[in-house]
Design a protein that fits this description.
Structural class: alpha+beta
Number of domains: 3
Bound molecules: zinc ion, manganese (II) ion
Radius of gyration: 30 Å
Helix content: 40-55%
Number of helices: 16
Largest sheet: 10 strands, mixed
Shape: elongated
Distance between the termini: 76 Å
Length: about 475
Amino acid sequence: MSDFIPSIGLEVHVQLKTRTKMFCACAAHDEGEPNTAVCPVCLGLPGAMPVINREAIRKTAKVGLMIGSEISLRSTFDRKNYFYPDMSKNYQITQQALPLCIGGTVEIEVGGQKKVIRVHHIHQEEDVAKSTHMETSTEIDFNRASMALMELVTEPDMASPDEAVAFLTALKEMLIYADISDCNLEMGHVRCDVNSSIRPVGTDPLGVKSELKNMNTFKGIHRALTYELERQVQTLRAGGTLAQETRRWDDEAGITLPMRSKEYAHDYRYFPEPDLPPVVLTPDRVAAWRAELPELPAARRKRFIQDYRLPEYDAGVLTADKAIADYFEAVAQASGNFKAASNWVMGELLRALGEKGLSIGEVKITPTALAQLIGLVDAKTISSSAAKDVFQVLFDEGGDPAAVVKQKGLAQVSDTGALDDFAAQAIQANEKVVADFQSGKEAALQFLVGQVMKLSRGKANPQLAAEALRKQLSR
Ligand code: ZN
Ligand code: MN
C-alpha cells in the first residue's frame, strides 16, 4: 500500500426512529408478521398519494445541525427510476437536486490522530421492501417499504478501513444520543455503500472507484475494505486496469466479487416528484430544532473532564454510550465521589454487564444504590474488597447496600475493643516482627496490620487496626 493512497467515501443509509412511514400512516417498526404494515401508498398501488412525514424531516435536519450542515430552507423530492422487485412502483422517492442538508463535518480520532471528515450532504428518502432470497424463490416483505431513511454522503476523505469505521462509530454515537435512530445494526438500521479507490502517491485525481453495496456491520466493512484496497493495489501492480464497478462482499469467503458495472446518476432518469410539494422551513423552525439538540458526546467528554475532573481516558469510555454516561452522572452526583463513581462504572459495572451480556437498561443495581455503596466504602464501613461482593449481590438481585452489608456480616470491625484483642494476638505471635518495628523498621507494621486483617477474616478497618497496634507497641 505504501506507494498508493486510498480514498474512501461512504453513503450511509440510516433508518429513522419515526412512528409512521415516510409517506403514509403505516406503522414503522421492525416487528410484526410480513406484509401487515402496508397500504396502497407504500405498496405503490396506482393513484395512491404520498404525504411527507414531518417527524422524519425534523430528525434528518437535526442530524445536519449536529454536524454543522447548512439546512436548506427549501428542499425538494425527486424520483429515482429503476426496476427491482423491492420497489413495486419502479421508482424511489428521494432527494437529488435540492437535499435537506448541505455540507458538514464529523471529527474522528484514529491512533491518537484527529481528522475531520467532510460530509457532502444528507438527503431524505424512503426505504425499499426487504427481499429474502430462498433456494428457488424470493420472499418480499413490504413492512419496510417506504420507512423513513436519511442518506448521508461523505467526501472521499477517509484513508483507511480504521478511519471508515471510526467515522461510522462517531456518527452512530451521535444518532443514538439525539434519539434519531436506534442504529441497531443487526436489524439493518444502518446500511452503507462503501466507495473506495487508490491513487499513486504524488498524484492528485482520484483513482477509479469500486462500490461495495449494502454493508451492514462495521466489522464486515473493515474486512471488506481491507480486502478491496489490497485487491486494487495488486491489480495495478500486476499491470492491470480497474473498472468502475459495483462489487459484493462475500463474508464467508472473505472476498469481494464483481456485481455489475457501476451505473451513473443519469441512468436513473431522476426527475422532480410531481406528487409532493417542496419542504419549506423557516429560520425560526430550524432554530427551534437546534435548541432541541442534546449535548453531544464530544462536548460531554470535555465536560466530564472539567466538571468531574476525570482523566481523558475515563471520559472517553464513559461517554461512548449515552446510557452509560447518564448512569455515571447519576452515581457521581449522588455520591459526590467522582473518581470512585468512574472506577466503579468502568470497572465492575462494565465487567459485569459484559459477563452477563446485559445492557445498562437491564441492570438491577440503581445509580442511587451504587452511590450508597461508594458512601459505605468512603465511610470505611466496609472494605473495598467486601464492597465488590456487595456490588455483585446488588448487580444480580438489586436492593439496598446497607441491608446487604448487614445480612452478609461484611461491616468492617471498627469496634476498638475487638481490634485491641486482634492486635494483642498479632503482637504476641510475631515477636521478631515486633522487634524489627521497635528497632525502627516502619514497614514491619504493615505485616502486623495484615495479621490483624487475617484474624478478623478481612473485616478489620485497616486504619484503626494500625492505630490499635501502634498504641500497644508504644507501651
Ligand atoms: Zn403504507
Ligand atoms: Mn439511497
